[in-house]
Amino acid sequence: MNIRLDNLTVNFDDRFQLEEVNWQLDDSQHWVVTGANGSGKSALAAVLASAGENLSGNIDGIPAKVGLVSFEAQAELIEAELKKDDADIMDVIAEGTPVHEILNPGDSNQQLIDELVEKFQLQALVNRAFRKLSTGESRKVMLIRALASEPDLLVLDEPFDGLDAHTLEMLQAYLATLVETVPMVMVLNRFDEFPDFITHIAYVDNGRLQHRIDRNDTKAYNELYQLLHLKTTDLAVPAADPETAIPKLDPTQPLVKLNSINITYDGHRIIDSLDWTIERNQHWQLSGPNGSGKTGLLSLITGDHPQCYVNDIFVFGFQRGSGESIWQIKQFIGYVSTALQWEYKVGTGLRNVIISGFYDSIGLYTKATDRQKKIADEWLALLGMSDRADTPFNKLSYGDQRLLLIARAMVKHPPLLILDEPCLGLDDMNRQLVLALIEKICAGSETSVLYVNHHPEDQIKGIENYLALEKREPDNN
Amino acid sequence: MPNNYFNTLPLREQLEQLAKCRFMDISEFPDGVEALKGKKIVVIGCGAQGLAQGMNLRDSGCDVSYTLRAAAIAEKRQSWKSATENGFVVGTYEELIPTADVVLNLTPDKQHTPVVTAVMPLMKQGACLSYSHGFNIVEEGMKIREDLTVIMVAPKCPGSEVRNEYVRGFGVPTLIAVHEDNDPKGEGLALAKAYAVGTGGHKAGVLMSSFIAEVKSDLMGEQTILCGMLQTGSLLCFDKMVEEGIDAGYASKLIQFGWETVTEALKYGGVTNMLDRLSNPAKIKAFDLSEELKLIMRPLYNKHQDDIINGTFSRTMMADWANDDVNLLGWRAETAETAFEKTPAGDVEISEQEYFDNGILMVAMVKAGVELAFETMTAAGIIADSAYYESLHETPLIANTIARKKLYEMNATISDTAEYGCYLYNHACLPLLADFMKDIKTDVIGKGLDLEDTGVDNARLIEVNAALRAHPVEAIGTTLRGHMADMKKIV
Questions:
Q1: Given B133, B179, B304, B393, which residue is catalytic?
Q2: Could you tell me if A359 lies within 8 Å of chain B, comparing CB atoms?
Q3: Of B38, B86, B487, which has the smallest distance from its Cβ to A365's Cβ?
Q4: Going by C-beta distance under 8 Å and a sequence separation of 6 or more, which residues neighbour residue B23?
Q5: Does ipTM exceed 0.90?
Q6: Cβ proximity of A445 and A413 under 8 Å
Q7: What are residue B115's phi and psi, to 5 degrees?
Q8: Dihedral angle, C-alpha A371, A374, A375, A381, nearest 10 °
Q9: CB-nearest partner of B37 from A323, A346, A367
Q10: Of the partner residues B55, B167, B169, the one whose CB lies closest to the CB of residue A365
């Protein structure tokens, strides 16, 4: 068996669409399909059992006999049973189809069915009407039916859901004995439920098959784990620390007001007479080609650019150059950039890296309070890094470092969060991780986001203001 | 030439000034930069140290501008570029000094006399003049107008570090002092403290010292253990390894990065920890070698300290200044021509532990140098805290410059004064160690001990460990590193 999906777009009753799926499965492989709720993972699995309407693209190699277990299939069967009842015009009490008939629609291996009924401890129910079973019981029936049909492909959508521990263990062990006989595709939500024999993982998001991962690729596997965690966790963005709260800003004033700004290097003017105001609760996207002065402009706001003292800059209630310190400015800003990541070359533990966000320092030079530690631990839990609180920052992968720096920037809930190309240098998986975290932040706080990016695919929901810089040629002076 | 200031003081006061040094608690800086608020700060000179301090002060909310010599401005020299590109107002002495409430003299020692002579008449009545090194006051006996307050704020790191640490939200250890002869309004200490806060120094630890203690200990440390010993050790160890047939590239690398690696251990846990990184037999070997080295070198350390205390050193160096730096430039050229300097580090992998195992002699040299410098300074009346900072504490910083670009980088980074003293030491120390080096083989430098079994005599090991831990530099080191750890990076 070699199944091949090429650019396949499938429609499901106009409710849902899988788009441009490219996927190859061969019979030596066992896949898990995973993703957040509503991502389309069940739909993708169902496509292998010929569900949905192909709009474009090709699907080849679907075997004749596919054993499918899913909530949808279970629901359909129950629905069908109920309809039979409705359709019964005779004045007798309809019992519905007994379980043993459901288990063997005709040509299944009866000996195997009996064996499985025993394994699932359903002996007492074989003569009962299928529609009278509990959800868990009918699920077991579905499983036995699929297994006993001796399929060429087994598609199991959340097969472990609702099973008691004993049955779960039994089923996992049983499936393991089928590894050489039948290729399996399982839809699973929890990494800890992935059976050992799984060889590949498919990750679905937003109706698209985003990642196909070989399980032996530990790095990708771990990143996927994290991505799924961020997408599915109920954890919210941790609150700020009331003890180290940022001073209140005058609500009538803008966060940032730049008047006729210039930035000049070696006599070449990079930014010329720019005006820009960022009001409270506005989200902005700043774009422009390399060398157009994006980072320079941001560092005028953060106070890292020495020319902030020769420009007319009003930030967070301070006119720059009037005796304020940069620490008074920085307390209102969370900042993430590749440059910061390069500078953050410290062996500080992850918890302390997050806490350093309260002090705007690279490294932590102050004893943290218990409350700060607790907040940092909540962030680590959100990121799925609770077990690494004391791991040195420089031992993290590049993508994880970025996530952690975003948490560091947000830990104090600043009025302005500056994300300077937060996806730069990240592979696809890590980019999605970062974007998932940023969306979570945007949704869960009152922080204004200033997002610098020039990749249209890295859009963030909720940004409504745009500033585009152009590169000035040297003769424009 | 005016009198050496230190030599004009009675012994009682000399001793009192030498003994000044106290580690200040961060709680002693509750007023932040308040004492400098609304005051106009003018920095003279815009080299690495000048630029870094000025940027830090400005970012701390102070009003900072730069004054340069008219020629530097007219010719748009590097100092002018650095200041203007960073958005500072730059003007001549005549333009800016009369407006200044605080003048920071951040020019090299050598220029202090002409610079201070030029700016003093231009300074406002009652203004403050600040130094980063007390040489001009202490050794050259510069007399400052009576109405002016004279302070010193000396970050104990190169300018680049001063800026980088500030940007990270930290700072570098900083020494402050008030010249008591020039504190007419009694505001010297408040200004020095505010200045240390403005550069971020208070976060990393501030030492309250005196001009005299700073000069006499700084000179001693830099010319003996910090630069002199590392230079002499580099040259001797390299030549010995090559002579014994060790690959020159390997030898070059072992030394260039070895100082940094072994002194990193020193930074964390003093001489004891540095030696604890060796196997037991190697530790005993290093201990014995260092005892021998201390015996041979002690008269040289004493001579350096004596010449520094009585002014011979500064007089000799100033004579070279007057003679167009003939000696300094000659020695600098000579260093560039040494075999170690001219042999690039080989493309070989050396593990962290291997630097210890194959560099037993280097460990012994660092131990001997640190202990001798500390012992000599404290014997001369310098308090243990000062002596610790000017010996053990700064050794890893200097070793780091050698790792970057060998002796050239070290001598380019340190002050001319330190460089001059370093060469003086090297010239005396090389012949002094000639006989000692004859008996040195690759077991202590280059290859490591070749032992079938690493057993040692218990009694001897106990003796060595006890001696290591009992040295006074270890006692004060433990205390000061404890203070620092409270403030320093929580790593």
A1: B133
A2: yes
A3: B487
A4: B205, B206, B207, B208, B385, B480, B483
A5: no
A6: yes
A7: -65, -50
A8: 180
A9: A323
A10: B169
Q: What are A418's two structure tokens?
A: 């500056």
The answer to whether the CB of A405 falls within 8 A of the CB of A341 is: yes
DSSP B247-259: -HHHHHHHHHHHH
- Minimum distance, in Å, between the CA of residue B304 and any CA atom of chain A: 38
Residues A78/A167, Cβ–Cβ less than 8 Å: no
Q: pLDDT tens-digit profile of B100-125?
A: 999 999 998 889 999 999 999 999 99
| Segments in A316-452 forming alpha helices (H) | 326-330, 338-343, 350-359, 370-383, 398-410, 428-443
Are B87 and A307 in contact (CB < 8 Å)? yes
Burial of residue B325 (number of CB atoms within 10 Å: 0-12, 13-18, 19+): middle
List the strands of the sheet with A200-205, edge to edge.
Answer: A66-69, A153-157, A184-187, A31-34, A200-205, A208-214
Flag whether residue A364 sits within 8 Å of chain B, measured between CB atoms.
yes
Lowest mean pLDDT among A131-140, A205-214, A301-310: A131-140
Residue A142 bridge partners (DSSP): none
Interface mutation target, options A263, A264, A325, chain B, most CBs of B under 10 Å: A325
Say whether B85 and A306 touch across the interface (CB within 8 A). yes
- Residue B458: which residues within 8 A CB-CB, separation 6 or more? none
**Which residues of chain B make contact with A328, given a CB cutoff of 8 A?**
61
Q: What is the DSSP letter of B99?
A: G
The set of residues, in sequence order, having a beta carbon less than 8 Å from that of A198 and lying 6+ positions away, is A30, A31, A32, A186, A215
Q: Identify whether the C-beta of residue A442 lies closer than 8 Å to the C-beta of residue A259.
A: no
Question: Which residues in A lie closer than 8 A to residue B167 (C-beta atoms)?
Answer: 304, 362
The nearest CA of chain B is from the CA of A320 a distance in Å of 9
The per-residue pLDDT for range B249-277, each reduced to its tens digit, is 999 999 999 999 999 999 889 999 999 99
Max distance between CA atoms of chain B, in angstroms, equals 75
| Chain B nearest-CA residue for A394 | B491
pTM given for the model: 0.77
Nearest by CB: B87 against A310, A352, A365: A310
Does B112 participate in catalysis according to the annotation? no
The length of chain B is 491
pLDDT tens digits, residue range A421-440?
888 777 777 777 788 888 77
For chain A, give the mean pLDDT. Answer: 86
Q: What confidence tier does B2 reach under pLDDT thresholds 50, 70, 90?
A: low
Cα nearest neighbour of B171 on chain A: A365
Find the distance separating the first CA and the last CA of chain A, reported in whole Å.
67
CB B430 within 8 A of CB B232: yes
Q: Note whether B442 and B241 are within 8 A (CB).
A: yes
